[in-house]
Amino acid sequence: MNENNREKGKNGMPSFNLTWLYIIILIILGIFWFAGSDDSASKSATYTEFKSYVEKGYANKIVANKDEGMLKMYVTTEHIRDVFKTDAKNTGLQPYITVQFGSIDKLEEFLDAQEEAGHLKGGISYERASGIWQSILFNLGPLILFLFLMSFMFRRMGSGMGGSAGIFNVGRSKAKLVDKDDKNKITFKDVAGQEGAKEEVQEIVDFLKNPEKYTELGGKIPKGALLVGPPGTGKTLLAKAVAGEADVPFFSLSGSDFVEMFVGVGASRVRDLFRQAKEKSPCIIFIDEIDAIGRARSKNTQMGGNDERESTLNQLLTEMDGFGTNSGVIIMAATNRVDILDKALLRAGRFDRQIHVDLPDLNERKDIFGVHLRPIKLDNTVDVEMLARQTPGFSGADIANVCNEAALIAARHGKSYVGKQDFLDAVDRIIGGLEKKTKVLTTEEKKSIALHEAGHATISWFLEYANPLVKVTIVPRGRALGAAWYMPEERQITTKEQMLDEMCATLGGRAAEELFIGRISTGAMNDLERVTKQAYGMIAYAGMSERLPNLCYYNNEEYSFSKPYSEATAQLIDEEVKKMIAGQYERAKELLEEHKEGHAALAQLLIEREVIYAEDVENIFGKRLWASRSEEILDKDVQESPTSELKNIEDKSKE
Q1: Which of 245, 322, 437, 530 is most buried by its number of CB atoms within 10 A?
Q2: What is the pLDDT of residue 645?
């Protein structure tokens, strides 16, 4: 859709833009201004002088008002000096004289005679006398219209800033207050998982409910708690649950709500926020995405946009360290970029605690599924434990999206209940994208993709630490022409051997292309990108290199513009990365050469079916030697689902 179509309304007419209203009003004001202003010179004259001017040919045109008995004689340009004794540039474009006459009949008789004599060419015209109201409107109309326009603009600016008193209320806080009597308040029962984080914030809840328990012993409750974790893990929900559990007012706003185009507004809003919080004490202030104003301050501050943000941060630091220790106002904030926050914000006395809200583990995912499945009509095929096992690495928001997508898929197929297959299809849809049934592949392309994906599956089957295979497909989905999906084990730490096995399995697609097709393609670009990043991380950050052992060159300085190592070390890192990737690539080729018959059978089966599962690979290569807990789970699901409904979550290879 082009821009012209986007600007049209439902009836095909251009959509209304407030800018055009401003332009039209300014044009009207300009017309009134220039029409009402007359800079031309004028002077009074007697009737005798008037007759003399007309007889000499000085009159350009004459405008008479019968009601008032007055006329205006406009002087021709060449005779302006004769009448006004000055140049035309000092008298304006249409200078005139005003004359009072007695009889209109006598005036017309005189002017007719002058026209016949050739002394008057413009003739005479008449005008009516303007009323008092018309005169007032003509003179005050532009001023009234201008005042109305300014008032309208101020109201618009005030409404855009969330203030009820217009632009003069811009310094007020935009925090949303959730009172303790709110019927829809959230408690810990509504927050599934995050048991560790809930334990840490429980102390805050206890203090707000019974502060004397701590103050009598001389203890001081932490002034602030910072919730840190990946997006979608429920940081905001946890903060609301703390307020609901403690039964206290809850001020909620985003870090960007402090930022405005006017200088000093952010600091004013911080002051107003804490003033309101003290009035509602005990209460909780929650600032979401605090990195919008809490970013580390620059050492070489210049005048500009950063000045306003830093003044807002300074005011926040002052307020957090200024109110009373046991005033009952607790600050909670959330961010997923704690590394860029200012150090002064994290010191003791401000945000005393950092509460990590991590991605949920298996048991926590089961609890989260239980919460989001409550409003959904399920059939007896849905197994919550199976869904939790097949969603490693999913956040609470991702799980909510899976449940919603499953309900939409079931409704799209006209079902009365949501079943297991709908959830599995939803997982595939979210991870891999929508199936491109209209994308037609040639026979050669299909064979190339099948050999590539079979290479991933073959190598991962014979490596000890490779993730268990779930499904391989050559059906285009999203931007990928094929994919091999795995069920990764949830590890807290990863060894070098595990990372090398994963790297080797990722390179299996490119190795299969070179061995069995004789040429390589762009299909492995995503694989190569992941392998390269992994290799640099292992060598430069994790110290897993033979020539650079036990060294970490990770630099967390935001304003550092130099590498923490020399050019010679950079060259050495590049060489080690090339050596590591080349070694795993050769290892992948050797494994494929050793099992080329099974690989060929697997590729042919993939061409015929387009989708194969773990049990199909087992029929070709036999049972895997290193059966992990994840593979035992897979075997159990295969036995329960002979039609191979298994779908996995984490995409380990998309081309």
Answers
A1: 245
A2: 31
Distance (Å, rounded) from C-alpha 83 to C-alpha 94?
13
* The three-state (H, E, C) secondary structure of 24-42, written as one string: HHHHHHHHHHHHHCCCCCE
Peptide bond into 282 cis (omega under 30): yes
How far, CA to CA in Å, does 199 sit from each of 54, 196, 363, 512? 103, 5, 17, 51
Q: Which two tokens stand for residue 655?
A: 């081309």
Low-confidence ranges of the chain (pLDDT < 70): 1-22, 25-26, 29-40, 128-141, 150-184, 260-264, 298-307, 322-327, 434-440, 478-479, 556-561, 626-655
3-state secondary structure 230-295: CCCCCHHHHHHHHHHHHCCCEEEEEHHHHCCCCCCHHHHHHHHHHHHHHHCCCEEEEEECCHHHHE
Kind and range of the H or E run holding 402: helix 396-412
Cα–Cα distance measured from residue 370 to residue 402, given in angstroms and rounded to the nearest whole number: 13
Q: Round to whole Å and give the CA distance between 75 and 93.
A: 10
CA gap 276, 227 in Å, rounded: 23
Read off φ and ψ for residue 73, nearest 5 degrees.
-110, 115
Q: Are strands 124-126 and 224-228 parallel, antiparallel or unpaired?
A: unpaired
Could you tell me what percentage of the chain is helix, strand and coil, using 3-state DSSP and rounding each to the nearest 5?
50, 15, 35
Q: Residue 158 corresponds to which tokens in the numbers above?
A: 């005030």
Are residues 509 and 456 in contact, defined by beta-carbon separation less than 8 angstroms?
Answer: yes
Residue at token pair 């097949």: 390
Residues assigned a catalytic role? 453
C-alpha–C-alpha distance, residues 351 and 606, integer Å: 55
Q: How many CB atoms lie within 10 A of CB 153?
A: 14
Residue 644's pLDDT is 31
The torsion angles phi and psi of 563, rounded to 5 degrees, stand at -75, 145
Q: Which amino acid is at 344?
A: A
The DSSP letter of residue 189 is G
Beta bridge partner(s), residue 473: 483, 611
d(CA 102, CA 47): 9
Kind and range of the H or E element at 444? Answer: helix 443-462
DSSP calls for 526-563: HHHHHHHHHHHIIIIIS-B-SSSBT-------TT--S-
| Strands lying side by side in the sheet with 283-288 | 176-178, 250-254, 283-288, 329-335, 224-228, 351-356
Q: Report whether 310 contacts 316 (CB < 8 A).
A: no
DSSP-based three-state secondary structure for 471: strand
In terms of Cβ atoms closer than 10 Å to its own Cβ (0-12, 13-18, 19+), residue 573 is: buried
* pTM given for the model: 0.60
Q: How many C-alpha atoms does 206 have within 13 Å on its Cβ side?
A: 12
- Residue 3 CB: number of other CB atoms within 10 A? 6
Strand stretches in 88-221, DSSP E:
96-100, 124-126, 176-178
List Cβ<8 Å contacts ≥24 apart for 628-635.
Answer: 628/468, 628/489, 629/489, 630/467, 630/468, 630/487, 630/488, 630/489, 631/468, 633/389, 633/487, 634/468, 634/470, 634/487
Residues pairing with 286 in the sheet = 252, 332
